[in-house]
Amino acid sequence: MTAPKAPQTPAPQKTPDTDSLRPLPVNSLSPDEAAREHAALTDRIRALDEAYYQEDAPDVSDGEYDALRRRYEEIEARFPALKGTESLSNRVGAAPVEKFGKVTHAVPMLSLSNAFSDEEIAEFVARVRRFLAFDDEVLEFTSEPKIDGLSCSLRYEQGRLTVAATRGDGAQGEDVTANVRTIADIPQELKGDDVPDIIEVRGEVYMAGADFEALNARQAAAGEKLFANPRNAAAGSLRQLDPKVTASRPLKFFAYAWGEASALPAETQFAMVEAFGRWGFSVNPLTIIARSAQELTQHFHRIEEQRARLGYDIDGVVCKVNRLDLQRRLGFVSRSPRWAIAHKFPAEQAITIVEGIDIQVGRTGALTPVARLVPITVGGVVVSSATLHNEDEIARKDIRVGDTVVVQRAGDVIPQVVRVLADKRPPQAHPFAFPTTCPACGSHAVREEDPKTGKLDAVRRCTGGLICPAQMVERLRHFVSRNAFDIEGLGEKQVQALFDWGLLASPADIFTLEDRNAASLQRLENREGWGKTSVKKLFAAIEGRRNVAVDRFIFALGIRHVGETNAKRLMRHYGTVEALEQAALTAVTPAQEQLAAQASAGDDALLPGLADTAARPRRLKGNEAWQEMTNIDGIGAVVAEGVVDFFQEPRNREVVAALLSHVTPAPMEAVARESPVSGKTVVFTGTLEKMTRDEAKAMAERLGAKVSGSVSAKTSLVVAGPGAGSKLEKAQSLGVEVISEDDWFALVGEADAEA
Asked: Known catalytic residues?
């Protein structure tokens, strides 16, 4: 069996609970433990087989499935009594789906044992030699790519195709004859004078990578479900009740084996594959003859390196004893032939080629390099790009366009480049030059300097802020988010749609949307996905946010390093947006001070050590406005520099001015300077019955307390309601004072009324 793949959208989990599966070594299991685990594994593997073979919706990746199978077989090997007639070791695949007619295979379609290392291939060769009692005799093997598709058996009588069937459970498959007749790669009639009267040709139905991408593009355009990978696409296409659907899908077929045959035209595996080619089938040109384990593993690694360029998915290389008489002598064990083995690729890694390096710009202006790859399947998912993290990482690994690289899915999610195969590097590949300007808006892109260490930030960022089109949608989404302007009806999809239609390009556009819509020939309520009621509610929500707390206003601007807490700190100090803007325009940062000194005195006249980046913060302090901002409790040089950079960009000030013409920020609530909780760190946990969590947080902050979401040794007080769990337990273990909600009101009620 080809191990299952992980779909982009996981199928509903219908497998049994496997809490009884234990990671103990098999030789440490007691008979009872082994029996329980064997039963759980039986249920788990059977469910996975049904999902994979019957529904084309696998639940796990290759590696996970192979590990379960191997564990199952190890338990049976140590506890033979568990291996009864119903053992999965004696079965292949799953029963045919009822919607298709059943076909009984004259010769069972069995599976292959797997090897996962060069050492296991060496052991396979040695095992075959021992069985045959071959010492110095020449022993040939064939080695061919293991196609990642759907196994199919084609029965020809007098050279004409009569029946086509899937593998099914190995004994019975599904009748897909009508669908198979639509596949151009499969001949309706065999040509040649050596075609047996009866021959079952077996191989793999698959879909090429480019065809898969084109099919998914068509599916997306039609609003249909996308396929997770080419194997799923091929299986789903072949198993259609309507052959016209199959005919519309770009399916291909490689022939490599056979079942029942009235006679065979050759005496070796390799010669039989050559016969398939003469008869009209496509056969894999990468099939070779090897005469040792070393030659087999060398071919495996050659194919592994070519994998990304093949144009179709493979998940390993199949090794078979070449002579058919020796295959017959070797016979079968369990569900697999002794004379063949599948050498599988590592489940979560693959080798491919870097076609280009693109720079993506995020909401905060971060320039992220992304490798554009020749598409390759990694762990059951087609990967066409991988993160390169930042420019230092590119330089460290020396990743260049044209390089052959090893990629993996980090945490089974984000593809990344593991290493470069330098010996495969083309001569025209040059080191990548990271841009110093934003590719989206042309603004200068800089790496911030840590004022304490003098080290540069790993990420280069665009300074364009609110005027950068690459950041605009994310900036707008942030602007209307819950903790910013909190405009109901403007979710991610709505913001994207309005931006795409040219109706939103800046925050101020939100507050002119209703007037512009009224004057438009194409009203918003007439567009797809909108209606009169939703538009009316949206405009009402926008109108209700023309007065918003000033700290929310500042947070909504998306200033670098200014989150909710820092927005509150800044506005408690400056009070108004205008005052903060004037402070930022007046401020001179240490870096700006150094540039001014260089301009006026020349590099040679700088104070000793001034050129030493790490020494600058000690020698250059910035002006009075800078010192005032950095002296605000909790606001250091990093946050202050983000504020200064933002407001010193003229186009950002234009955006703020336009916004202030429509919005009147409300002053923050006054904070009690003296209260029972002033200066204390408070944590709320459990269910609060007399106030919401937001009300509790606002009350505590109004009384000068700091509200935290977690308990630590620095926590002063925990207010616990019913249902309090881990936070309460941690507070008790640390000796932190814990009070009830009623105790909280008793403690702060009078002070809150005064505040």
From this structure: 146
